[in-house]
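Structure tokens please, single chain.
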Amino acid sequence: MATVDVLIPCFNAARYIGAALDSALGQEPRPARIIVIDDGSTDQSAEVIRRYGPPVEYHWQANAGISAARNAAARRASADYLAFLDADDLWTERSLSLRLAYLEAHPSVDGVFAALSQFISPELEQSLAGRIRFDPAPAVARFAGTFLLRRLAFEKVGGFNETLRVGEMIEWLARADAAGLTTATIPDLALRRRIHDSNTVLNAAASQGDYLRAIKGALDRRRGAGAGQS
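Here you go.
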């Protein structure tokens, strides 16, 4: 039977990491390993994570950003497939089985994305929640938390760009396209993305530079590929 390792970067997510882990542990098939990289948290994240036994693993590193944390988890992975889950998000009940079934049925596809929906975290102050505009309807998204891929395909592309704090998935997918990886999307809901007071939804201005760098890098790669074909 195919095995899946779940990679979870965590930074000061003590309020949410337990729910994220529960959503991963509730999957069928159960993940072979859930590798959590504590990216230098200063809250009680470690205490929450260490309450769980196998297959949850806890590893600490000095703060280096989400890309470095994901890469550290990937280096420890050994399963057939890799799945990504952020410490503040939730997988739906059949998230893993639906995506795994697709890849098992399509051996020529390297990775598959699914749909996500967004929700406002219950503890968010009403005054702040009222200023957030988002569409709660499920939508297919090329988002890390909806992505399941073959481990060997990830290793072929290499890890995430550790100089980017956001937009790392855009840049990684550009390299994946250049390397000839094939991805697909399915309409099934796989992820519930939490909106809270410290994620990138509410801190877009501070993240804009990295997004622009990631997009520019993706466009440059596409132009380079086009020039090579002419």
